[in-house]
Structure formats: C-alpha cells, structure tokens
Amino acid sequence: MKSLNPLLFGGVEVLPLIEGGKGVAVTNGASSGAWAASGGVGTISAVNADAFDDEGRLIPQIYHAKNRRERHLELIEYAVRGAIYQTQIAHEVAGGQGRLHINVLWEMGGAEEILEKVMEGTKGLIHGVTCGAGMPYRLAEICARFGVHYYPIISSGRAFRALWKRAYHKFSEFLGAVVYEDPWRAGGHNGLSNVEDPLVPEDPYPRVKALRDIMNEAGLHDTPIIMAGGVWFIREWENWIDNPELGPIAFQFGTRPLLTEESPIPEGWKQRLLTLKEDDISLHRFSPTGFYSSAIDNRFLKDLKARDARQVAFTQELLGEHDAPFDIGGGNRPVFLTAADKGRAMKWVDEGYTTALRTPDQTLIFVTPESEREIHQDQVDCMGCLSSCRFSNWAQQAPWNNGKKADPRSFCIQKTLQNIAHGADVDGELMFAGHNAYRFAEDPFYSNGYIPTVNQLFERILTGD
Length: 465
Fold this sequence. Notes:
With 465 residues, this protein is α/β, with parallel strands linked by helices. It has 2 domains: 7-264 and 442-462, Alpha-Beta Barrel (TIM Barrel), CATH 3.20.20; 292-428, no CATH class. 30% of the residues lie in helices and 16% in strands. The protein has helices at 29-37, 68-94, 111-121, 139-146, 157-166, 204-217, 267-273, 299-309, 339-350, 369-380, 413-421, 454-462, and strands spanning 7-9, 12-14, 17-19, 41-45, 99-105, 128-132, 149-154, 178-181, 188-190, 225-228, 249-253, 281-284, 292-296, 311-313, 324-326, 335-337, 355-358, 363-367. The protein has an 8-stranded parallel beta sheet. It has a 3-stranded antiparallel beta sheet with strand order 9-13-12, with no helix packed on it. Helix 5 (157-166) links the parallel strand 7 and strand 8. Helix 2 runs parallel beside helix 3 (111-121), helix 3 packs parallel to helix 4 (139-146) and helix 5 runs parallel beside helix 6.
C-alpha cells in the first residue's frame, strides 16, 4: 500500500487521518486528545458536550426555565461549558501532538454564539473548526477573527461553490481543508439533495473530482480535501493517494473510533456495534432537522417507521373521495377520509392506536394514548436545540416558532441523543452510525470482542487495515 504522507493542518504537518466529530457527548476530550496524540487530527464535539464538577461528577443538563426561549439560553450555557471543558481535556491528553479541532453543527441552536464563546474560552487550544449541517456562510468570518482555520463539511462541489462565492473567498487564507461527507455512507445527518436518490448511492470519486475542479478554479490546488463517510480500510482508497486528479487527500474516520477504550459511549452501545449486519443500518428522514440521516434500524427507528405508516390524508369538508366522516375526538369536528382509509383507520383503532394526531401535511397519524402523551410532553419541554425544529415548531428568532404546525411524526433529538450517550437502552433510542458500521462484525481486528485503544486503532489504520 502507498504510504500516507503528512499534510499541513493548522500550520503543522500531521498524518492525514482525521477523527470525525460526533455530536452530543460521543466524541469527547479523551478520545479526540488520544487521536491527536497518535499524530492525526482529533475532533472534539462542541454539540452539548458533557461537563463535570470539581468532584468529577457529570453535570446533568436539566432545564429549569418555564419557556422555550429561556431554556434555549440554558442550553447555550451548557454547550459552552461542556465544549470548553472537553477541549481542555483534549489539550492535556494530546500533549502538544497532532492537531485539535472542534465540530459544530450550523443548524444547532445558538451555533454562532456557542462557537464564538467556545473560541474565546479556548484560545491557543483549538487549531481548527469543522462545521456542516447546513450552509455555514459565517463560519469563515468567525474563525478568521480568532485566527483559526475552518473546515466546512459539504456533500457536493455545488455546495462548496456557493459557500466560496458568497463568503469564503474573503477568508481564503484560513480555509484549512474542505470535508467531503458522502451523503449515502456517512453516519448522522447527511447532505442528500432533493434530486439525489437515497436508495442509489453514487461513486464518491467523480463527486470529489468535481469538487477538486471547482477548488482548482479558485486557486485552491494545495488545499486538502478530507474524504468522510464510508472509509474503513485505507487500502481500499489507495488509488486516491497521491492522485494528481484529486490533489492532497486526507481521510476521516467517524464510525471506527466509536469502538475504542477511550470512546465515551456506553458499553451496551459498543457491544451492539460488534453484532451489526449490513441491513441493520438505514437512511431515514424522521429527524426534526428535515435532513436525511444514517442510523441503526433498531426499535426506536422501527417505531417511527410504523407510526409514519399509520397515516391517512384527510379533508375538513366533503371533498371528492373524502366522503367518509371520521371522529377524531377532543371536541373537534369530524374530518373526512376516503372509505378505504377509514377502514384502515378503524383497524388501527381496534389495535389500540386510538389517538389521531394532525401533521403539517393535512394527514393524521394514529398512536397509542401513552405515545401521544410522550409526544406532547416532549414538544412542551423543547429547549431549542436546533435553529428550527419541525417536531416542536421551535425557531430561534422571534416569535420563536417556525410558523408551521408541530410534526408528531418526528421526535425530540436532544432527548434521545442525551439518553443513548448516558446509558439508556440502545434499542430504544436513536443510534447514529455510518453505513460501514456492520464491518465491525466482519473485521478480524475486532475478533472475540476486542476493543482497541485509540492509538492501537490509529496504528492499525496506518497498515492499510
């Protein structure tokens, strides 16, 4: 296999192996610091990271305010405190080796304020900021102000062109690299566009080649591209290394670092990763962000799919085939379904799904009374973790809602990601994973349930495996 040559990141030559930043307490200071200490780029998640008190006890993210706007401010305080805490840990663990980045999501609640406050509180400790989940136009300006390199995450050359023309060309000297995140293979939220088929993955090579062509037009010949999503064995990407068509290339690993001794995810999550099969991982669009995302097809996801399937269109008045009245209760006037849909609805009611909830798309979904109460409570408890949330209808600008009806087909993402990161049943919570997570069960490196240290994994990756 071709050897990996060091590349320049944050003014220092390091091996072109990047740890992907995984949000809500999944990539912390211990794991990212260890990755940097091994000679690569460690990435601390600055998305509601954990903080601990002077006695080493986790500070639970409990919200006390009575309204969403005030809870949103509490969330920002938690996020800033946690990110600074984890960055300090990473700095100590790295011992001056490698580089340390923080990862933020542009569509997370309070993203700009959190980023600025974390940068202010970690001066000299952070060498770069990776950012995706949206179009982070102001990322370059903020990073340049602090003298830190920025690493936008995009899923197409078209997206980078838009960012470059609108903002990034003004701050080109701080563009450290461009992260190409494959929208079919990467874990978590993905950047699939409306014209791309989620069921038909495209070869990443021509997409990255198109990105490089656009970057070359902008004079960015020497700026690395970081390939993210679907990377497992480096030997499978050997034709990308030292390839003049692609230019300097680095590789990002998000899924594989989940299964290390330093990884903060609970033991039950680690053990589940060792048993996955290829069809256990799927793309779905239930996220309150509206983005597609890749996750384990566990009970949590199956319940969302079943909820979505128990759905019928309705009209308020008699209209065409919608001529069958249906009583949705709660003092509301009956709505009208087609005769076939009324038959389906009555079957669901007989099965115990007796509560009909309206969606923003003029449909009803049928859930149990217990599920209805949980959905309603989660919507009431919203703390504004996203800039705009389709589940609760929150938006972070006045009047603090997105002008749409809350969508009961979605879920509170902050609640479930906090739950799974802190020991809840992994089958009953959202478990993000890249498409290649099934390879844990096939890779001989993990035989007999072996879980390496970060450094052992890093050294293994350097061998090509």
